[in-house]
Design a protein that fits this description.
heterodimer, A: 159 residues, mainly alpha, B: alpha/beta, Leucine-rich repeat, LRR (right-handed beta-alpha superhelix), 4 domains, 16-stranded parallel sheet, three-stranded parallel sheet, globular
Chain lengths: 159, 488
């Protein structure tokens, strides 16, 4: 049972309903719309990103849907990415962030997790300067401001 | 992570943008250790703005204890001496930081009677999770301020003050006002004998209720069933018997039921009637440890639970009959089986279970030893392996020959192993065996005990494993691990 998704740059993607419903946003839209087979517009996702997202959903179409308990501590590990997912995430940084934002918008939690874990692994253990280099970010703090932030948040450091 | 760095890409509908960033930033922060998160705050202004609130999402405030390990400094002056003997102050956030950020606290764990708490409380109105050890009047204020958001409430007495109890009567009408409240856990609590109705009203909205080391002079009163309660934990708690039905009878959608009670016996007869009426269909997790249930009753119970996947029955008479039912009707679904200190569960029963139950992820029994390597090897889903004591030993610790060439190699199938507990049964391994472990059990995250019986070699072995397996945590005993987890 195919579903048509339309990217922000007006490209159509024909996808099995089961695959599309890995996105809770799309799943809810389909439930609201009922039997209609009109295309679903996704104004927040470009074709390039949607291609990757669909690839992920296809591969994981049979995964059990996990509902996390509200009470659980939300902090998680990042050293348990599956091999396929690791290869899937070997994209340039811009695409990596686009995938994370798309996974958040489309409400595909496992993909959001994998994206966040991938970025977390890039920056783990790095100093602020090393993180800036990794992402080409300009430092817009003065040295005094940076020192103040460090001092102000000493209480949170892991001893 | 910030759209400013990708000027060509227009990803968001502008009105949604701030919220989307916040949700993503928070989600992302959960995968970072504290120190990396702190480094991120200093990267740039936009990273600081996005991530500073995330630092405050989960806030823990525990009691300071005097540091026992300050070094002796024989030639220090008077001031140093004074520092040595005072409490090590925990470094606290500045008032400015609290003003800006305390409102982002969604999960709070604190120890009551800490002066710093008073500075925080006025800012807290977004709490979803509240865990308090040592009740103080601040609890009432927090319940009032967070009545529309609070989802989970855990109250505990002070473990260092014997007899420290929480009189829940003080807060019933606050609990009734908490519209989002779904999970309640009460430790060392007392409920008076006229509060059954309020108790019942609160239970009606809950999905999970845990009563631990508590005394209930009246049980929750209700004419109707608790239609949302899927988890019920009764641990060492006293509930009056009266003429009221047992609590589980009011819970038709129960998925997890724990009865670990030293005082008061679980009415097995009533429980079996309850299950026989088809009311145990949703039950997937059952913990009857310490309930002294006999083998045949356990067998009947397991037979009446079509959805059972997790069973704990430590300190019970779980034996051949219950084993037979598990392997005949539950062998393809049982994922967790914990049977410590069950004198009726011997090596033969262990062998039968290991052979039949292919989906086991957690298995703890006293008799897992070298004989079972081949059976263990088929449990490819096993996540937790706890090596137990051999019951006919007079002196411990029993040493288990766990070398690659004497059986360990067979366990290369346990690719998902996350926890190895060898506190009770110490493996004797050589360096090549440790290298095998780090190559093979890549998912190993927790090691309890030591992989070398020799005292000097122990720390070196554990350090080696920890250095080769990222994220591995090592503890010498389960007690040490429990303390560390509680402190987190």
């Amino acid at each position: 049972m195919p579903v048509i998704l339309v990217s922000s740059d007006n490209q159509d993607f024909k996808v099995d309903k089961e695959v599309a419903e890995r996105s809770i946003l799309i799943k809810n839209m389909l439930e609201d719309v009922g039997e209609s087979d009109s295309p679903i517009p996704l104004p927040n996702v470009t074709a390039a990103v949607l291609t990757k997202v669909i690839e992920y959903c296809e591969h994981h179409r049979n995964d059990p849907v996990q509902v996390p308990e509200e009470t659980d501590d939300p902090r998680k590990r990042s050293n348990d990415i599956e091999e396929w997912d690791m290869k899937f995430m070997q994209v340039d940084q811009e695409m990596l962030f686009e995938i994370i934002l798309a996974a958040n918008y489309l409400d595909i939690k496992p993909l959001l997790d994998v994206g966040c874990k991938t970025v977390a692994n890039i920056i783990k253990g790095k100093t602020p300067e090393e993180i800036r280099k990794a992402f080409n970010i300009v430092n817009d703090f003065t040295p005094e401001e940076e020192a103040q932030i460090k001092k102000e948040n000493e209480w949170a450091e892991d001893r | 992570m910030d759209a400013h760095h990708h000027p060509q890409q227009h990803v968001f509908i502008p009105s949604d943008e701030p919220l989307d960033h916040r949700a993503v930033a928070l989600h992302f922060s959960w995968f970072l250790d504290k120190n990396t998160l702190l480094a991120c705050l200093r990267v740039s202004r936009s990273w600081f703005a996005a991530l500073e609130p995330c630092l405050w999402h989960s806030f823990t405030l525990l009691r300071d204890l005097p540091s026992p390990t300050l070094p002796q400094q024989p030639f220090q002056g008077v001031q140093r001496q004074q520092e040595r003997t005072t409490l090590h102050p925990r470094r606290y956030p500045t008032p400015g930081s609290i003003q800006r950020n305390a409102r982002h606290i969604a999960r709070l764990r604190y120890f009551g009677e800490l002066p710093f708490l008073k500075a925080l409380v006025p800012h807290l109105n977004q709490l979803r999770y509240l865990e308090v050890t040592r009740y103080t009047e601040e609890v009432k204020q927090l319940l009032q301020q967070n009545a529309t958001t609070l989802h989970t409430l855990i109250l505990k007495g002070d473990p260092l003050i014997p007899g420290d109890t929480i009189l829940v009567d003080r807060i019933w009408h606050h609990l009734l006002d908490c519209s989002a409240l779904r999970v309640v856990e009460l430790n060392s609590a007392i409920v008076s004998d006229y509060e059954g109705t309020k108790f019942g009203k609160v239970c009606h909205k809950l999905t999970s209720l845990s009563l631990i080391d508590s005394k209930f002079l009246e049980r929750p009163k209700s004419d109707d069933e608790f239609l949302h309660l899927h988890t019920l934990v009764l641990e060492r708690s006293y509930l009056p018997t009266e003429d009221q039905p047992p609590l589980f009878e009011l819970c038709p959608v129960l998925e997890n039921f724990t009865w670990r009670s030293r005082s008061g016996k679980l009415s097995i007869f009533k429980f079996l009637i309850f299950l026989n009426a088809g009311r145990g269909e949703a039950l997937s997790g059952l913990d009857l440890s310490g309930s002294q249930i006999v083998d045949s009753d356990l067998a009947s119970i397991i037979r009446l639970l079509p959805g059972l996947t997790r069973l704990r029955a430590c300190n019970s008479l779980f034996g051949p009959e219950a084993t037979r039912v598990v392997v005949e009707v539950r062998q393809h679904q049982i994922q967790e089986l914990v049977l410590l200190e069950c004198p009726g569960f011997g090596p033969m029963e262990a062998q039968i279970v290991l052979t039949a139950c292919s989906r086991l992820q957690v298995f703890s029994a006293p008799v897992v030893n070298a004989m079972h390597m081949a059976e263990l090897a088929v449990l490819t889903n096993l996540r937790v392996l706890r090596l137990g004591e051999v019951t006919d030993m007079e002196e411990g610790p029993f040493l288990l020959d766990l070398k690659v060439h004497s059986g360990l190699g067979l366990l290369s199938t346990l690719g998902r192993l996350e926890v190895l507990d060898c506190e009770k049964l110490k493996p004797v391994m050589e360096f090549s065996d440790l290298q095998w472990v780090v190559r093979t059990w890549r998912s190993l995250k927790t090691l309890v005990g030591s992989v070398h019986p020799n005292f000097e070699q122990r720390d070196l072995s554990n350090e080696f494993l920890a250095s080769q397996l990222p994220g591995l945590e090592t503890y010498l005993t389960q007690a040490e691990r429990s303390l560390a987890l509680a402190a987190r």
